[in-house]
Write a structure and sequence with these properties.
Elements: H1 3-20, H2 33-38, H3 41-44, H4 49-57, H5 66-79, H6 84-109, H7 112-124, H8 129-133, H9 138-159, H10 163-177, H11 186-198, H12 207-226, H13 238-257, H14 275-293, H15 299-312, H16 334-349, H17 354-376, H18 382-393, H19 397-409, H20 413-426, H21 431-444, H22 447-460, H23 465-477, H24 481-494, H25 500-508
Helix pairs in contact: 1-6, 1-7, 1-17, 4-5, 6-7, 6-9, 7-16, 7-17, 9-10, 10-12, 11-15, 13-14, 14-15, 15-16, 18-19, 19-20, 19-21, 20-21, 21-22, 21-23, 22-23, 23-24, 24-25
């Protein structure tokens, strides 16, 4: 590295620490951080042989992600359950990734300042906040790290092919896939690098990578089938999922240029006006035709645009997992291509006015960093992040539920109750919300109303042990012991957690 490269890398590191550094003082969130860290007994125990075996055997949260699980175990092994340290590690991984983006594209293209601007806009865009500040999204920055190391190893292989260098590509790709399966389109991204700027043809050498990607897809698909009973989106029609994917692509494009009204969770709309996917599809098609037609003169436009499309394909929602219509975190690697197309295009357009180009680039970096810093503040804790989501997205049943749960955790029960009610008003079939509202009503002493909501939860998800247990408690209080006993028995069959399990057994003891 030259002295100039070192200065640019140091500036990128300083900017990342300045913008994201205050997240070290943030709390765990009650959305996924519990399952990934502080309520997960395998993770909380740190590095143990049974825990390592579990990490490689489990398909949880629809993914096979052993490397991510091991990274969370390492946090707990070294630092216990203190959120400052996993926050710091996320920030350091993102900082490293930003420097790697600069070094990779400087090495690929020789364009130092364009690569520096690309890396700065990647590092400080508000869409990065979710991946960097949310502990449960370690898988984004971790898989991004392995992907960028894979690209670096690939460049070394292209410069001087050898068995060990090719093996390093395979190892980095494997570790990336085991961090987050979203990397399954990475072989296509390497083909794009072959097209520009490497200008080579080498499909055969990618075949082992495509085989690894196919295996990952099969495992991920098997995981989604295995968890079908709890996957809210499992029965959505394919046509609706395609429509949502098209609208989401257009939304990602808009947010990349105007990142306003961002939120941790964007609700999935079950009704989408026909003209929205039609307009989004037309826009995507026109842009694709335009960049392909101009590829002879400006190949970087086709490279960047196709990178954006290919990298976003796995989480586009055609195979829907989870309750989100889209998510900021899904743009982590796709944004590199789109940003490169804009930076290189603007640089060519302003080639005769370099001072203006430099001023605009600096203004864009500062504005992006300021917006990123401001948005980071809403992630301080579960209350602030879901208050923001409710404000920014409107009718959002899941955000209302998690906001209510966060308020309950702080003993602010009166404030939480309207949010519990809003969650089930917006989405009556949201069985988790129905159960939580029932427990909130129990605290208020409204046993009959609580029983009604537990009954509704079981109507939509009959295999919900917690709802059956609480319904049994309420039926007993309402003077219906025989019905209560049946609920306790079914709750135990379905599998209750302690201490509810012990309590249910005690209720069944004559």
């Amino acid at each position: 590295m030259s002295r100039r490269d070192i200065i640019i890398a140091a500036a990128l590191a300083a900017a990342c620490l300045l913008v994201f550094g205050r997240a070290v003082g943030f709390e765990f969130l009650n959305y996924d951080d519990n399952a990934y860290v502080y309520e997960n007994p395998w993770v909380r125990g740190g590095f143990t042989l049974p825990g390592i075996i579990w990490a490689f055997n489990v398909i949880d949260y629809f993914y096979w992600q052993p490397v991510t699980w091991l990274s969370h175990m390492l946090d707990c092994q070294l630092f216990g359950l203190r959120p400052a340290w996993p926050h710091l590690l996320n920030i350091l991984l993102h900082t490293t990734n930003s420097i790697l983006v600069f070094l990779i594209f400087r090495r690929l293209t020789g364009a130092v300042w364009r690569s520096a601007v690309l890396a700065a806009l990647f590092a400080l865009h508000p869409l990065r906040v979710e991946s960097v500040v949310w502990i449960a999204e370690r898988k984004d920055v971790l898989s991004g790290f392995w992907f960028l190391l894979m690209v670096w190893a690939y460049l070394r292989f292209v410069e001087r092919p050898s068995g060990p260098r090719y093996a390093s590509v395979l190892v980095a790709f494997a570790l990336g896939l085991m961090s987050k399966p979203m990397l399954m389109t990475a072989p296509l991204l390497l083909l794009l690098l072959d097209y520009w700027p490497l200008r080579r043809r080498a499909f055969a050498e990618k075949m082992p990578l495509f085989v690894m990607a196919a295996f990952t897809f099969a495992v991920t698909y098997a995981g989604s089938r295995q968890l079908r009973s709890i996957n809210w989106a499992a029965n959505l029609p394919l046509g609706h999922r395609i429509a949502n994917a098209l609208v989401s692509y257009a939304a990602y494009l808009r947010l990349s240029f105007w990142p306003a009204r961002l939120a941790i969770l964007y609700p999935y709309r079950l009704e989408i006006a026909w003209w929205k996917p039609a307009a989004a599809g037309a826009l995507l098609a026109l842009l694709t035709v335009a960049v392909v037609r101009g590829a002879a003169r400006r190949p970087y436009l086709a490279f960047g645009w196709l990178w954006f499309l290919f990298a976003l394909a796995p989480p586009s929602g055609i195979v829907q997992v989870g309750r989100q219509a889209m998510a900021d975190r899904f743009t982590y690697l796709p944004s590199i291509g789109l940003t490169l197309a804009v930076v290189w295009g603007a640089a060519d357009l302003l080639a005769r006015r370099p001072r203006l180009g430099a001023s605009l680039a600096l203004a864009a970096i500062v504005a992006s960093g300021a917006a990123c810093w401001a948005y980071t503040g809403s992630w301080r804790n579960s209350v602030t992040v879901f208050e923001n989501a409710v404000t920014m997205t409107g009718d959002n049943s899941a955000a209302e539920h998690y906001l209510a749960a966060a308020l309950d955790d702080r003993g602010r029960f009166a404030e939480a109750l309207p949010h519990h009610a809003a969650a089930v008003r917006i989405e009556p079939s949201y069985f988790i919300g129905q159960c939580s509202y029932g427990m909130a009503l129990e605290r208020q002493g409204d046993i009959a109303a609580a029983a009604d909501h537990f009954t509704l939860a079981l109507r939509y998800f009959p295999h919900y042990p917690q709802a059956r247990f609480h319904l049994g408690l309420d039926l007993k209080r309402l003077g219906r012991p025989a019905e209560a006993r049946r609920e306790f028995e079914q709750a135990l069959e379905l599998g209750l957690d302690e201490p509810d399990k012990s309590r249910a057994k005690k209720e069944l003891t004559p």
